[in-house]
Amino acid sequence: MAVGVKAMPPLGAIAGVRLGTVAAGIRKAARQDLVVIQCDSGTTAAAVFTQSHFAAAPVIVAKAHWRQSEPRALIINTGYANAATGEPGLADARACCQALAQVLSCRPDEVLPFSTGVIGERLPVSAVIAGIPPAVGTASEDGWMDAAHGIMTTDTVPKGATCEMVMDGKPVRITGIAKGSGMIHPNMATMLAFVATDIGSERPVLQAALARAVKTTFNAISVDGDTSTNDALVVLATGRSGVRLTAAEGPAFTQFCEALEQVCAELAQAIVRDGEGATKFVRVEISGARSDDQARIVADTVATSPLVKTALFASDPNWGRILMAVGRAPIALDDPDRVTVSLNGVRVFRHGMVDPDYREEAGQKALAAADITVGVDLGQGHGRAVVHTCDFSYDYVRINGSYRT
Amino acid sequence: MAVGVKAMPPLGAIAGVRLGTVAAGIRKAARQDLVVIQCDSGTTAAAVFTQSHFAAAPVIVAKAHWRQSEPRALIINTGYANAATGEPGLADARACCQALAQVLSCRPDEVLPFSTGVIGERLPVSAVIAGIPPAVGTASEDGWMDAAHGIMTTDTVPKGATCEMVMDGKPVRITGIAKGSGMIHPNMATMLAFVATDIGSERPVLQAALARAVKTTFNAISVDGDTSTNDALVVLATGRSGVRLTAAEGPAFTQFCEALEQVCAELAQAIVRDGEGATKFVRVEISGARSDDQARIVADTVATSPLVKTALFASDPNWGRILMAVGRAPIALDDPDRVTVSLNGVRVFRHGMVDPDYREEAGQKALAAADITVGVDLGQGHGRAVVHTCDFSYDYVRINGSYRT
């Protein structure tokens, strides 16, 4: 199930980036489960990773390699997360890097590994290694669509986004893919997302752009409030457009940031629309807070409330539950009577009680939509935040009550 | 549905406390929905209330009255929470107090009002007022069982507990009732609970005992992580046993605290066992933390994780999700490799990976039980915390996806 998903747009190739996808039989037969992304020498990479105390082995290895070198390749498997696998798991992740490095004639620390799937079980390294030559063999600049399929797990649709613009009179492009559906409440990045651009950039400038884009996109979505052990997001910048970012400020940087944010927003929202069991796509918009941070705390509280999410599933304009959630948010709220609540623009609550103009029919009509905006104005400042989430349905319980069986 | 609920024990009468319960037709016909609890002059009361920013009108009025006076009566209705009802809601709550005060010939501020039910709709005050004379007329010291039924909403079983002890050579008794099933993650007290004892006590001493008891009982349970607008817990001390607490310390105080804690623990755990849709009763036990507070943060994170709770519903020993939840807990964790995880005493994780002695069959056997202890040792200190919760089932979604219809 996925809410209001548009067909994935054609994903524009990025000069200098080649993607190969194969069915390596890692956990299930005949499933595209191994992706190799190669990039030209001279490519720089920005990256963000999960902040979980139990970061998976590939996250630990990818982070270390990325700190040492600019990458020449990424290797991504589904089926097993290679998380909670201790020292043997780290050795497994390193073995995958080594095998790919050998095929590509680069150093192992120029390879970044990524895994997603079941936690706590060993990665079948031999299957991964056997899959590397065919993956490299089929790699092409047109491989984005296959790669978007190749990184899926409980996702029901592939997720990709492309953005084109003109900078310095030259065309510049950003393309990205992502996967994720459950265990989504990123605290740095979500699950796995890979973005590439043909702009050129020193790593610190690229990293600054990524940090800015992530804050309002991947770090502002929630399916179930649970943060993965394997979250990672990488941006590769090949420089092949001939355009270069020279500083983390100024109009060119801003233009690039906005484009990157747009691609990240599309990918992040696609993850929410494909949230496990989702039947509603919900924009929680908090305004009138003392600060953006305060608004964000309230937005997270509303977006993770099981009672709010089950009411949304039922298309029930049960605004009392939204109020309940705001009521338990750990912030200072000077005057609850100044709080207003609206559902898709229909104001339901103001001055401490139901809006006298509110009619239940209007609320029901608002909630019947698949895309819903829950608006809360706290009436105590100018802080704002938006978090995207989905509802909580029977299917969320079904999917997660039978994941391993 | 309720997990492993024993039949409610006979509830011992408390000399000086009389309870009357009637069907006042507040929201549904022929449903016991109004309870009046009267207590003798000289009774002292301790109380804790929700910390929600949107405390319901009866909570605001009860708090104000309680601060001014020792109560002579409590009036409790189900059907409507009288929350998010603004000034009119406050007037409604006061009108109920006034009507009962008139019947009992006491002051309105000697009456404490409590409501539970739908948020955002006005309380039908005339129905409440009409129900007062018959409720007072039937009030008796043996009315506890009827009152336990009279305060139920989505509860499937009534909840009560009794404890008897000997102090100064005299018998002393504590009896309490509670209601609550959803919107349960108390931050002071849960939903509604009323406890009485025939011990005598100044209010500050009684309040100290209550604060101590609440911390490990009502404030350490969670059904869905959502905190009610109407939570309230009152302890009445009539003094009719002839035994008096004279100080908030010493052996007599400790003895009373332990008994009060036992009654509160039974009531709070009965709420979790009757959690909406619950099929498992789960004890989340965190040890080895730097402090009890740190342990509590981790316990709350595990106890409110949808992925952990759906795995428990599926009886799936998916310990990776427990680790994921610990991994996202907002604490400093020095060495993840020192963390161990066990399921009903079966150790599943240690030294950063699955315990080599662990067998999936043992985990499945542990999870097949209705009562499950999730044990996590953080390996960095002596802090401990226990939170009781339940699983997340289809029925939670069903109950909360159709509550108002």
Automatic annotation (TrEMBL), chains A, B:
Any GO BP annotation: ornithine biosynthetic process
Enzyme class label: transferase
Gene3D superfamilies: ArgJ beta chain, C-terminal domain, L-amino peptidase D-ALA esterase/amidase
CDD domains: OAT
EC number: 2.3.1.35, 2.3.1.1
Positions bearing the site annotation: Involved in the stabilization of negative charge on the oxyanion by the formation of the oxyanion hole: 116-117
Keywords: Acyltransferase, Amino-acid biosynthesis, Arginine biosynthesis, Autocatalytic cleavage, Cytoplasm, Multifunctional enzyme, Transferase
Cellular component, GO annotation: cytoplasm
Keyword Amino-acid biosynthesis recorded: yes
GO molecular function: L-glutamate N-acetyltransferase activity; L-glutamate N-acetyltransferase activity, acting on acetyl-L-ornithine as donor
The reaction(s) this protein catalyses: N(2)-acetyl-L-ornithine + L-glutamate = N-acetyl-L-glutamate + L-ornithine; L-glutamate + acetyl-CoA = N-acetyl-L-glutamate + CoA + H(+)
Known function: Catalyzes two activities which are involved in the cyclic version of arginine biosynthesis: the synthesis of N-acetylglutamate from glutamate and acetyl-CoA as the acetyl donor, and of ornithine by transacetylation between N(2)-acetylornithine and glutamate.
Subunit composition and interactions: Heterotetramer of two alpha and two beta chains.
HAMAP family assigned: ArgJ
Family (UniProt): Belongs to the ArgJ family.
Protein name: Arginine biosynthesis bifunctional protein ArgJ
Taxonomic lineage of the native organism: Bacteria, Pseudomonadati, Pseudomonadota, Gammaproteobacteria, Acidiferrobacterales
Gene name of the encoded protein: argJ
